[in-house]
Every structure is written in C-alpha cells, then in structure tokens.
Amino acid sequence: TFLRNRQIFLHLNREEWRSFEPVQKRPTIATVPMEEASHLNFAVVTTSEINGNHGAGILLQRIFPDSSRIFHLRSFNFYGENDFGGIDREIAPSEDLAETYHEVSSQISGMPLEGVFCVPFATHDLTLALAVSQIARCPLGIFIMDDQNLCGKIDDEVMGLALRHASVRFGISQEMIDGYERKFGEKFSFLPPVVPSHSIRST
Predict the structure, then answer these.
(1) Residues near 57 by beta carbon (within 8 Å), at least 6 away in sequence
(2) Axis-axis angle for helices 123-136, 97-108 (nearest 10)
C-alpha cells in the first residue's frame, strides 16, 4: 500500500504525512509527560540502550557526559538497562511508516528540541531520526560508528535520504569516511573515539 511505500512516504513533508492514519495501531506507548518534555532540548537515536555494556554506549556517554536534558529514542531493547537520557523510549520497527511517525510525534510533543543525533545500526534508526527532525523541524546529525550500509545491512535509499537531510555527518575512521563520501557524495567530518577528561594529564 501507499503507506508502506518507504520511498514515497519518507519524502512527504510534516503536513502531508499527518493526513495518513496508521493501517493498524500497536499498543500505545506511554507518552512523555508534558512537564517533563519541556525540559528536553535534544534527542539521540540509537538501535538499543546506551550503557557501559557495549562500545557504542560507552562512547556516547563520553560524548554526552550530561544527558539529563536529552530524549533518548531507540529501536530495540537488548541489554535490559539504559543509563542515558532524561527520558527514554523504545519505538520498535513497523512496516507501517505512518504508525512510526505518529508514535514519534506523540512522544516528542512539547519538547523544544534543538537537534537530533543519530548513530545508525539499522534502517529503522534512521527512520526514527528523520521523523524527529521533520516533526520538530530541528537539524539532524549522523555519526557512522559501525559500518552497516557499505556492508549491505542499512537500506541505501534511507541512508542516502538521511545523509542529504543531515546538517552534519561524522565518521569514526578515515577509511569509513572515504567509503561513504565516495558512495553518497556527502561531506563527512572525522569524530574519533574519545576518552574521559580525567584520563588526560594536563601539563
């Protein structure tokens, strides 16, 4: 159906996609209370929970040492615990993009978001990040930490759309940057792994 045609739906603007109702609604996810939403000014989108049990989680905790005003949105729960964000929610993949967009819209309503930062490991992560950016009308940043597109796991159409839409793009290695710039023609910046400031001795 039209609603499930990703190539068409992702190119709709905010007013256009709102006119479509989900084909079949999933159980309602608890929405963020308005009094809490008003304090969240940034969003981070990942595949799973952010914690110290995996490398991406450790690195994101170092990039954002104070995440109290961040809304963390993810596609899956793998680890059973999340140690990041003032508020966090899971929105699992759905074949119905209208459903995904309406779920994102209900979650971020009332949040004065100034930007969204996505570390994609799956196609759905980019779909969520695009939805946040389009709904909140805020800039999108993408950090390629794990290569899931050049190896064929993330859909080319969605990756290309997200990279074109993004205001800033980062890669964790120069080799990865070179590969993505060749394939998509978009400029990337180098963002290497970081260490905690207390581990660096000043002179």
Answers:
(1) 49, 50, 51, 83, 84
(2) 50
Taking 60 as the threshold, does the pLDDT of residue 5 lie above it? no
Bridge-based pairing of strands 70-74 and 140-144 is: unpaired
pLDDT tens digit sequence for 71-97: 999 998 888 788 899 999 999 888 778
Tokens of 114: 């100034």
Question: Tens of pLDDT along 172-199?
Answer: 999 999 999 999 999 999 998 875 555 5
CA 202 to chain centre: 35
Task: Return contacts of 16-25, CB within 8 angstroms, 24+ apart.
Answer: 17/97, 17/98, 17/101, 18/105, 20/98, 21/98, 21/102, 22/96, 22/98, 22/99, 22/102, 23/96, 23/98, 23/99, 24/96, 24/99, 25/99
With CA atoms as reference, report the closest residue to 184 among 153, 167, 163, 154.
163
Sheet containing 168-171, strands listed edge to edge, beginning at the edge strand earlier in sequence? 87-90, 70-74, 42-46, 116-118, 140-144, 168-171, 189-190
Structure tokens at 1: 């159906």
